[in-house]
Amino acid sequence: MNKRKLSILSVALPFVIAVILAACGNEKNRTGNEAEAAAAAGSPDLSKVTLKVGQTGWGNLEAGFKEAGLDDTPYKVEFSVFQGGNLQLEAMAGDHLDIALTSEIPPIFASQAVDGGNLQIIAIQKSDTLEQELVIPKGSTVRQVSDLKGKKVAYVKSTTAHYFLVKMLEEAGLSWSDIEPVALSTSDGLSALIGGSVDALASYGNAIISAHQNGATTLASAKDILSGNFPVITTKADIADPAKHAAIADFLNRLNQYNEWIHNNQKKWAEIVAENTKQPLEQALETLKNSQEQRPTKVTAISDEAIASQQDVADTLQSVGLLTKKVDVKSLWSDAFSQMIK
């Protein structure tokens, strides 16, 4: 969408959101109903809204919104970068974040908090499952996952890395207790692998890219283990706030425009990625092309299939003792924005 269309959208947004919200009287989430009633009474003033948005990576959303001409929002946006979705949800629980972009796993663990983590999954960002790997350092004698029995394996707690490591061990006939798991951040895990203090690393994104640049090899890939569902999460209070509600709805649609811009401008985006992640342009472009071929990123409304997928993940984590009790993930989901996602 060009800037002229975005300008028209910004002007028309309050009225459109008010009409849509008024039509959504059958929403399951009560806080969403409060927002609808307030919005129907009058257009919310988005100029006074600041959306605090979290992400895992290097700050690609801020750079991408600017490059795609999507940064002319009728509200303020503050982007923050975290090393994992679990850290985003910790910030959200402390009321320091309005939107978090995570995998299926962090909300499950966050839901174990006293207040249920104060979160609601409002959309799914379908994306690729590449660069999610179990890697071994250069010179390792490990040849298969079963060789990790009794060895130190670093992983990022309460993330996709935590989950896919469990699944890889199961497939190799090992249990969680058969290894010496070492919970580390993405950067500390990478340092531990390169420094030789762990025998393998389960991680994702830039940590995997850097690991390969330092001679690491892939022991197992999670590309066929993970669903590719990455929840978009907000708080119950933000759903109930008419202005925040409207701003989030607009942001979700801009997020889809950003994803579409990347799909249509792959070389340009690869140049930006390469510059920010200090990797060769050819490698960044190849990674991007592979991800777009596997599954172009797109924001979608919540669905029964997505909820069932996350429930399966939760049940798996419980079956190996990583969750102390059964989690009904359905309570974490809200369809308050489903009719607004274009």
TrEMBL record:
It holds the Pfam family Phosphonate-bd. Keywords: Signal. PROSITE patterns: PROKAR_LIPOPROTEIN (PS51257). SUPFAM superfamilies: Periplasmic binding protein-like II (SSF53850). Residues 1-22 form the signal peptide. Transmembrane segments: none annotated. CDD domains: PBP2_SsuA_like_2. This is Sulfonate transport system substrate-binding protein.
